Amino acid sequence: MDEPSEVISVRHDAGGWVWSITVPDLTDHRMKLLRQSARACASYEEARREVELALDELREGH
Questions:
Q1: How many structural domains does the chain have?
Q2: Which of 12, 14, 22, 42 is placed for a possible disulfide with 31 were both Cys, Cβ 3.0 to 4.6 Å?
Q3: Could you report the per-residue pLDDT of 8-57, keeping only the tens digit for each?
Q4: Residues 35, 18 contacting (CB under 8 angstroms)
Q5: How far apart are the first and last CA of the chain?
Q6: How far apart, in whole angstroms, are the C-alpha atoms of residue 26 and residue 23?
Q7: Residue 2 within any structural domain of the chain
Q8: 1 is a domain residue
């Protein structure tokens, strides 16, 4: 069986763009937050770059 994949979300909130990375928690049937932005980004593109870097770090075990 395949492992659950990460879900990235980028949304406009608090006057800027924020992101989060979640994974399905199959035991509790909900989403588990792995990481989220510490600050709002000025643009969608900036938030997207940040979340992609954070996802790479998670996959590398950092």
A1: 1
A2: 22
A3: 999 999 799 999 999 998 888 899 999 999 999 999 999 999 999 999 99
A4: no
A5: 25
A6: 9
A7: no
A8: no
Q: Which range marks the domain in which residue 34 is found? A: 7-60
- Cα torsion angle, 54, 20, 23, 2, sign: negative
| Strand, coil or helix: 39 | coil
Contact between 33 and 22 under an 8 Å Cβ cutoff? The reply is yes
Tokens of 55: 């996802």
Structure token digits, residue 56: 């790479």
pTM: 0.83
50 falls within a domain:
yes
Element (H, E) at 13: strand 7-13
> Which pLDDT value is given to residue 2?
61
